[in-house]
Write a structure and sequence with these properties.
Elements: H1 2-10, H2 17-28, H3 36-47, H4 53-56, H5 63-72, H6 77-88, H7 105-117, H8 119-135, H9 141-157, H10 165-169, H11 175-184, H12 192-203, H13 242-246
Helix pairs in contact: 3-5, 3-6, 5-7, 7-8, 8-9, 8-11
Length: about 250
């Protein structure tokens, strides 16, 4: 399995990866019990497979895409939790001086790319990180918070993603989830002005400029009001003499 997974991550190109993934699933994930192997595969991709710059600039299927596919093969809630733990385990006590960015890169790329077409995947991963800050090890909650905060900071410093505006303020994410993330990691969140601007762009609205007049511009006087309507007159026979009234104007 290790040899085949390494082949998937280092040799298979985008466009032909689906047939290899189907073959891999049929061979190793054919029954419910085999789903425990998914967590092992995710840990292997995060901790062992570190692509070179040449591979990153090629059309070889990226690690985050393989992990996304592995997450979609899970049908058990328990295994889903274990798979997310396998993906983010390196984040919990991350040290920028001694740990490598390649261990945490797949997690943020899965979230960032899932926002485009599968925002519910990004939401579940984001919610998992928030909850694990205090639930993974309550006695070390401050250390875990520091590790996750260091992970996000290093991701921005090394330009894995440009910023977290979409992650924090994406309209398809639940509002409570976004608020919870801002409260848990306020230093990572953009300013209020940036959030409001992003919300306007995301919603597809463009503010219209306010009409203004220069000091040199003279305004023409408003047109006079129309004359009051002339009451219609009736002759002795009770017929309207409108034709005569219209000829006066």
């Amino acid at each position: 399995m290790e040899t085949n997974l390494s082949f998937l991550a280092t040799q298979v190109k985008l466009g032909s990866h689906q047939k290899y993934q189907k073959w891999f699933s049929k061979k190793y994930f054919s029954n419910q019990e085999s789903q425990t192997l998914v967590c092992d595969c995710i840990r292997y991709l995060c901790g062992v497979i570190h692509p070179t710059n040449e591979m990153l600039n090629s059309n070889i299927v990226p690690r985050w895409a393989l992990i996304w596919w592995l997450l979609t093969t899970i049908t058990s809630n328990v295994m889903a939790t274990q798979a997310k733990l396998a993906l983010f385990y390196d984040w919990f006590f991350y040290d920028k001086e001694s740990d490598g960015i390649m261990n945490i890169e797949p997690g943020v790329l899965v979230m960032n790319n899932a926002l485009k077409s599968h925002p519910y995947i990004a939401a579940t991963l984001m919610d998992f990180l928030i909850r694990m800050t205090s639930e993974f090890c309550p006695e070390l909650s401050q250390e875990v918070w520091t590790g996750i905060n260091n992970s996000f900071t290093d991701i921005i410093e090394k330009k894995v993603v440009p910023d977290f505006v979409n992650l924090v303020n994406h309209p398809k994410l639940d509002a409570e989830l976004r608020v919870a993330f801002r409260r848990k990691y306020p230093e990572l969140c953009p300013s209020t002005e940036e959030l409001e601007e992003n919300e306007t762009v995301s919603a597809g609205f463009t503010a219209e400029p306010e009409s203004r007049f220069s000091d040199d511009e003279t305004r023409s006087p408003p047109p006079p009001p129309p004359p009051p309507p002339v009451p219609l007159a009736l002759d002795k026979s009770g017929e309207l003499i409108a034709q005569y009234i219209y000829s006066l104007f």
